Every structure is written in structure tokens, then in C-alpha cells.
Amino acid sequence: MRESWHTNDEKIYVIPQNLSEAEVENHKQIAKKGTFTCPYCKAQLYVKSGEILGNFFSHLHGESCEASKQSEARYSKYEKQKKNDTKRQPHIVALMNDELNVLVKVYSHVKVTPGYLNPEFSKNIPDITLKIHDNKYAITVVTNITSSTDQAFAKSIQNQKTYYASLGYEPIFFIERNHLGIDIDGKSLVLWKTELQALTSQKADTHWQHFLMQLGELEVLQAVLKLPKTDLNVKSLMYITPANEAISIEAFHILEHPNTFPPKAHFFATPYKLSFSQAFKINDENLSLADLDIENNNQSKYLEYFSQAKIALERQLEEETHLTNLATEEKRNQVVENQQVYLKSYSQSKYAKSDKDKKRELVMKAFHSNN
Q: Which of 28, 280, 297, 309 is deepest in the core (most CB within 10 A)?
């Protein structure tokens, strides 16, 4: 098992996997002196290490209690679930876990747990679970999306979302930022299927949705802003920087383009970066994942952009209407002119005159023969 109860610190301790040989030996020594006990049965734990299993805690003679066996089974499932991720993934999760644990020290009603240590989960295991009073979050970091892993990741995320929601948890997914792809129009994201499945609805999305609805009818917004022909259902796609950089979160508020391949999504305003401490704030007992002051400022800029785009579109429509009217008038004048030319030509035609004389002669002959 990977976890133990640290008797002096009085908290759960998860043994790191990147310990040096000297550090492993030190862990073994303090374990012999009773530092680590089983969180479930309170028995003393010992430290072991190997190439296959890495660093782990063990009961005496390996006689694990039932609860620790279940925990180990969850960890095995979790490892299998994360097999396609990069080596950076656990480091990102560890940094995120450390930042969330700062909230635990500040707020007594906040609880942070590694996903595999949460006994509520068995089918799918998130990286971290977070509880703020009755609000519960299942957090997952995704890395290493490629053409060969995309389908599997997307299916896994779809299953996780359904499963976590069934347990009363709000699923939150972070995609490593090096997968970010902005289309050549500068206003759209080109997505992996995994990114499409990782979309979630956050408080800032509702904020944007209400803002957009105040600008005008959906048809007007679609015409002015060149939005996708779909309902105004704003969602978030959250990126996280790699562990070898200064860790930050960047959220795109987007509208999906329906029936596009590769998947595509329109995003509103330029996203901004937030450090963990800025993103993981509690607002009305919810995780914010946004800075509403920055969001309001972005919306003010977007309102100005919308106003300018609307004026430009109205001028374009006026110009097109004017050109259409000119073309219609010119066509009408041309028709009249053509008729006049034809009538004049017809009236001056000798063939037309002789044809009329012949028709008159035939009519007169028919009249005389009948009378």
C-alpha cells in the first residue's frame, strides 16, 4: 500500500516514488521505530522497495487488513487508468494536491484526498477528490494525448464523467497546455476528442452566458460574432502548464461547433493564466477556477468588440442592399431599353409588314368563302 498514518504528524502520508536509495533506507529506519501505522487497522507498517512495485508500506509478514487490500486494489486500478500519461503527470498532481491542502489549513470544512484513497470510488479513480461542505469535486489531469491515445482517453473521460456524477461529484478535467491548438482564424480551438470530452460547465461559463444573452437575440449574436449555429451553451476547457514550468491554469470559455472534424470550438475573449492559489479559491462554497474581476474586464472589452462588429455588419448590409437596388434598377432599365429597341426594329422590319399583309389576305379569303 502507498499510504500510512504518520503517528507524530497525525495525518495520512503517501510515500514518494522518487526517493533516493539513502532516503528509502531512512524511511525503513523510521518505520521500524513505529512512525508509520495502517490508517485502517492501526497496525505498524514497514517500508519496502523494489523495481516492480516501487516504494510501498507493508504490514508485518505482508498480512494486510481487508481495508488496505481494497485500497491497494484501487491504486492498481488507478495506475492502469493512468498508464498512457506522461511522467510529468504525477508531479503536476502532487503540486496541485499541495496547493489544495493549503485550503484545508485555512478552512475546516474543506477536505482533500488522493482519489485512490477515497473509498467511494471503485470503477474509475480521479487524481484528487475535493469536498467543500456538500459540494464535491473529482479532479483529473490528462497528459500525452496523441492520435493513438486520443480515442482511449476520450472514452475514459466520458465514462469518468458519468460515474463521478452518479456519486454526486462534479468532474473537473485539466489538459496539459502543450496540447492547446488555436485555429488560423484566431478565434477557435481545434480539439482532440479527449479535449471535447473534457469540457465542463463552471460558474464563469454561466457568467458569460448571461452576459451574451444581454447583448441580443441568438441569431443576432451568430451573425455579428460569427458564432457556431448552435444553442448558447458556454462551457470551459481548462489547460494546465507542464510540471517543468511555473504551474498555472488557463480556462477557455467556448461554444462547440457542431458536426466538425477535427472538433472545433469558438472561444470568447483572450484567456488568462491563474496560479493555483488564484484558481483554487472558494467563492460561495464553490471552487471558483476564475478571477471574476478579470472576467468582467474581458466582458467589457468583448462588449466593445461586439458593438464595433455590429456597426460594421450593419454598414456592410446597407452597402449590399444599395448595390442590390442599383443592380435591380439597372436590370429594369436594360429590359425597358431592350423592349424599345425590339419594338422599333420590329416596326421597321419589311418581313414583319409582308407577314401582316399575308395574314390579312388569308382572313379576307376565309370571310368571303363563308359568305
A: 280
